[in-house]
């Protein structure tokens, strides 16, 4: 199962262009999902600019945390059937998505994904597709 995951507000606190503190439970759940066979695709507006490699910094952050990305802002498997720039996924996890459960941890700039509520049903979906 392809799981597209936003970065700022979903994996880390909104501190763009910097990388904020980890959202509680995000890394734990991403590792758990990848262990259960999810193909994680980073789906973010961050980009590498001449002045700063913001997307590359996010990718390195996730790699350092043990997250293996299947794709970055694209799903490599969709190249055979479309040239669309939108990354194909079966699930999209994003703090800006309508209905996504949010929390507001002390010291965070904005609300972020509540992984205690998001993780279990996503895991169930991933396992049901295996």
UniProtKB/TrEMBL annotation:
Database matches in InterPro entries: HAD-like_sf, HAD_sf
Superkingdom field: Bacteria
Protein name: Capsule biosynthesis phosphatase
Annotated organism of origin: Desulfopila aestuarii DSM 18488
